Amino acid sequence: MSKSQEEKQSRDRKVVVKRGAQENRAELTEAEWEIMKVVWEKQPCAAGTVQEALVKSKNWAYSTIKTTMDRMVEKGFLEIERIRNLQLFHSSISEVDARRGEFRKMLKRAFNGALTPMMQFLIEHEGISKREAAQLREFVSRAGKKSEGKK
Amino acid sequence: MSKSQEEKQSRDRKVVVKRGAQENRAELTEAEWEIMKVVWEKQPCAAGTVQEALVKSKNWAYSTIKTTMDRMVEKGFLEIERIRNLQLFHSSISEVDARRGEFRKMLKRAFNGALTPMMQFLIEHEGISKREAAQLREFVSRAGKKSEGKK
DNA sequence: GAATATATACGACAATTGTAGAACACGTCA
DNA sequence: TGACGTGTTCTACAATTGTCGTATATATTC
After folding, report:
1. Contact B47, B89 (CB under 8 A)
2. What is the ipTM of this complex?
3. Where does the pLDDT of residue B92 fall: very low under 50, low under 70, confident under 90, or very high at 90 and above?
4. Sign (positive or negative) of CA dihedral A9, A15, A19, A20
């Protein structure tokens, strides 16, 4: 496997574009996640806005965030709308697609890509709060109807 | 945040040791996952065994795998049992802990650490089969009881 | 126009992760 | 003992990601 092939695969794995019925998904790094969460909420917004939003939880230098965001533009995760000297960023990937990417990556690594072993894992090894359980019950009752519809 | 602090936090995040009732979990890279899956299945085993097992899916050079495994020893994920000149590796982390680490990382990044939005996401965006929905229901029905026990 | 504030561009370094070949060491066999 | 096979050690490079200060550019105000 040559470097360029691997590079191409690596890219495809990060952002899998729509091919027929296949869905969009993206894989973000830790820092990218933090930044995208702010962008999804405040877009279009400047890098400075993102920095201000993250100053408490992360305390990153402005240039740290700007660099990361510029790289995300190169990767196709963000786009720049220019107004005079100001760059406003907006997302090119949806939160749903990013979530899907992260979820699928986890599923593939830890559960060979299958939901059933993950569910078993949750059942046997993960507990949840009462509140979460109540909310889940509500969603599950809807799930019955939705899944019938889907399949 | 100084470099050494960040380094310490980074380590703690990768392997969170047992503190009281808190659980074990680990975070593995892509290559580490591939290797651990083989080790869990064949341990104790030599690096060459791992390389042979992965030759079809990955075609990594022996030294690629050996290097990764040596680094994993340094990280505490693997341990070496020496028999003459031969090193047999066995895992220091369980598959459950690794799964938990990967799952929790995903949950934190994509769903702010909460199960409920993840389940909602699955139901609304991922499409689940009847069987999976049934497992979800089982999880929810057990959730009430288990969480009492765990918490 | 100068001073100031804001924002971008530039450049660089460190750590981690992935990748792997070459050199060296050990064990076995003829 | 030398040859050969197996396994470890050593070394190194590349890419990515994280991190950030400095230089430069732009816009505004006095």
Report:
1. yes
2. 0.83
3. very high
4. positive
Cβ–Cβ under 8 Å, residues A148 and A142: no
Reference A94, options A53, A39, A52; nearest CA is A39
Please identify which residue in the block is written with the tokens 């050996």.
Answer: B66
Of the candidates B63, B130, B76, B22, the one whose C-alpha atom is nearest the C-alpha of residue A127 is B22
Chain CA centroid to CA A34, Å: 10
Model confidence pLDDT, tens digit, residues A22-34: 347 789 999 999 9
- Identify the pLDDT of residue A144: 52
User: In A24-61, where does DSSP find H-type helix?
Assistant: 30-42, 47-54
Contact residues of A toward B, CB < 8 A: 1, 28, 30, 33, 59, 96, 98-100, 102-103, 105-106, 109-111, 115-116, 118-123, 125-130, 132-133, 135-137, 139-140, 142-144, 146-147, 150-151
Is domain A24-113 classified as CATH 1.10.10.10? Answer: yes
In angstroms, how far is the first alpha carbon of chain B from the final one?
33
Work out the angle between the directed axes of helices B62-75 and B47-54 (0-180°, nearest 10): 120
Identify the segments of chain A with pLDDT beneath 50: 1-13, 16-23, 146-151
Q: Beta carbon of A31 within 7 Å of strand D? A: yes
What are the pLDDT digits (tens) for B103-150?
A: 999 999 999 998 888 988 988 888 777 777 777 777 777 765 544 433
> What is the Cα–Cα distance from A36 to A52, expressed in whole angstroms?
14
Q: Are A93 and B104 in contact (CB under 8 A)?
A: no
Q: Where are the domains of chain A?
A: 24-113
Q: Is the CB of A6 under 7 A from strand D?
A: no
